[in-house]
Amino acid sequence: xxxxxxxxxxxxxxxxxxxxxxxxxxxxxxxxxxxxxxxxxxxxxxxxxxxxxxxxxxxxxxxxxxxxxxxxxxxxxxxxxxxxxxxxxxxxxxxxxxxxxxxxxxxxxxxxxxxxxxxxxxxxxxxxxxxxxxxxxxxxxxxxxxxxxxxxxxxxxxxxxxxxxxxxxxxxxxxxxxxxxxxxxxxxxxxxxxx
Length: 195
Ligand code: GDP
What we know:
By secondary structure, this protein is an alpha/beta fold. It has a single domain, classed as P-loop containing nucleotide triphosphate hydrolases (Rossmann fold, 3-Layer(aba) Sandwich), CATH 3.40.50. It is 34% helix and 24% strand. The protein contains six helices and six strands. The protein has a six-stranded mixed sheet with strand order 2-3-1-4-5-6, sandwiched between helices.
């Protein structure tokens, strides 16, 4: 899809995952905004846009931040539509958020059908003091979940670990997602603006 004003490519991604795993902080870090200590629950839906130069093309990248609380399930349903990418976030220090990750994919699937390129993100690695499997979610567990999901749903997905506090891997993660989204879009429709 293209922006009607300037013809730039539009790509839309959604951030999903339990409340307080760091979705808003990840988005803020990517956009170069300050990290905020203390939790302010995202109310309903939040949206940010960033123009990025990608593959010699200006891309209008729209990132939806959906409230993690179950009560917002109905609101969230609308925002999955037309989405080209998913960022599924859990916290490596909150095992419940990892256990819930598959539920989020099921919700996305219910709303979208076959899923677009997806990044599975284990966030808050700055707070993981050891790789104690009982206490914290390890990179191996995250990767195994991602591998399982790729096989089961046949979706282009990658796994990354991040810290929205230190900024570790945030830019790279978004760049990789954009790359996958771009590839998927090129496969799907011929670019009518070329030639
Ligand atoms: P959301 O509900 O998923 O959007 O989560 P928020 O972005 O609001 O973050 C919830 C809380 O976790 C806030 O207090 C953030 O400051 C904190 N937080 C988010 N990401 C990180 C991180 O990578 N490291 C640390 N130490 N805290 C984080």
